[in-house]
Amino acid sequence: MLMLPEIIVVLTAGVVLCLDLFLTERSRVILAPVTLLGLALGFAALLVTPQTGDLLGGRFGMDPIAWWFKVIFLIAGFVTVILSMDLLDGRAAHRMRGIGFRGEYYTILLSTIVGMMFLISARETITLYVSLETATIPLFVLTAWRRDHVQSGEAGLKYVIIGALASAFILYGLSILYGLTGQTSIVGMSAKLADVPRPAFWLAAAMLMTGVGFKLTIVPFHMWAADVYEGAPAPVTAYLSVASKAAGLAFMFQVFYRIFGSELAGWTPLIAAFAAVTMSLGNLVAIVQDNIKRFMAFSAISQAGYLILGFLGPADNGVPAMLFYMLVYILSNLAVFACIVWYSNETGRERIEEYRGLSLTNPIMALGMMIALFSLAGIPPLSGFVGKFFLFSIAAKAGYNWLVAVAAVNSTISLFYYLRIVRQMYIEPIYEGAGTLPVRYTVAATVGLLSLAVALMGVIPYFYETIHAQTITWLASLIG
Amino acid sequence: MTEFLAQHTPTLTHWLYLSTLLFSIGLYGLLTRRNAVGILMAVELMLNSAALNFVVFNRFCAPATVDGQIMAIFVIAAAAAEVVVGMAIFVALYRYRGTVDVNAMDTMKD
Lengths: 480, 110
Description:
- The complex is a heterodimer.
- Chain A has helices at residues 4-22, 31-48, 64-88, 102-121, 125-143, 150-181, 186-192, 198-216, 224-231, 234-259, 268-287, 292-307, 315-347, 358-361, 363-377, 383-397, 401-426, 441-459, 462-479, and strands at residues 53-55, 60-62.
- By secondary structure, chain A is mainly α.
- In chain A, a hairpin with a 4-residue loop joins strand 1 and strand 2 (60-62).
- In chain A, helix 3 packs antiparallel against helix 4 and helix 13 packs antiparallel against helix 16 (383-397).
- Chain A is globular and about 70 Å long.
- Chain B is an all-alpha fold.
- The interface between A and B is large, with 45 and 44 residues.
């Protein structure tokens, strides 16, 4: 019962792959609805799944943190399927060459989603490693999906090399931890870590931090992100920027809170330094970007910098704040990417100045994109502001006032470059002869619902309070 | 000869030297090779050094269980999956670029 959402998603992957075999090319349009149905069923199963408990002798565990992460992964997957289907079904006005193979695409997408869901529930090093690989290896394939496109293949090459390097570091770190403790279960490892030799412990911690840094695009391990995001097909970029980042955070939670739990206090100066460098570099480089997907890559890097501020404080403040910010971030980012994918489908344009005049041709889409961009920049009363407020206050409580100053300056810088897009949409002259671009109802509903959620989650305290209350009860059982 | 070998079995430290050496060679290869396939082989070395670590630690630190050996098997399987995906991407790329030299992979720089 606890594993029901994962089982449903895996079964959907199998069903989609088998259906693909028996369908004719024209009737393959039903594959996307089948995938969506599977994800919706998985979500429904998640709603009725008990929020605590474990399976398989404690190797698979469920708690409110894992529950919220699974919500995040399923939402990200669901929206990605909606964004992909116009492109894959050939309904886009601007056809991309070398994209197709719908059944395989959805199967691979579903398998990375299920890998991420297992990742946050893993309570065992072996499960943790295998689910991490299940989550990342399909992403390499998705990145290189456009077979005859130079940049897509190049992005795939870079991603596969960097991804394999990151997992090598993670694996070596885990092997040292195994050697130090003689345990593969996370609880057993964490219990024995207090009296292991320090140099070896720090070596393992540094290796794990390096690997996680690659996944979460923390400077100086970020350099792959820009090229991979730019080269990948736009819906895959959307998925990479939200789900892959959420999976990185999930892995960081596993490592920091479950394995290194008691040692976290000694890490804070290092994390503060990483956060400061990450947000500054991401923001400064984003200013000069031209391609919107590359621009969103640097924006995502700077968001990762804000995100890890939550590790500075005690877990009972940090965990809910980071979860809430992650939820807000994926909703805002997906809304932005829904507009990017739609605009690129309709016109083939991906440069920032090519967004000029969008507010005159498609005012609703422009409004949705503006709300989401403002939320990413952290303008009150949108939810991005609330999320950042919680994270900054954790840093301030931990005594890192200089870091809060850096973060505030960075928020201002980020407002400047997010406004660059808004300016193109609202102030710059329209393309000559440009008419209203058609918007399919699925895309319109996605953008509408996401931007509405982004606007409301900041005003209605229900979400944050629920996350806070649920994670507190779990953390109390872990600490006390 | 057998007596000599029986008296000089490698200890944990020796195995760790070996795995660290493998990891370092892999990292060096990753940074210096220009052919993407060579880079993938270097990454394989790094993954295998970690797998070696698991087996060795299992033998010397927790001989009552087999967790480390199981982990090594999974590492081999995951590494194989990684190589399959990597090689597929490289082959697709080679078909229209005619090269998998990583120095030529700069079409997206500004």
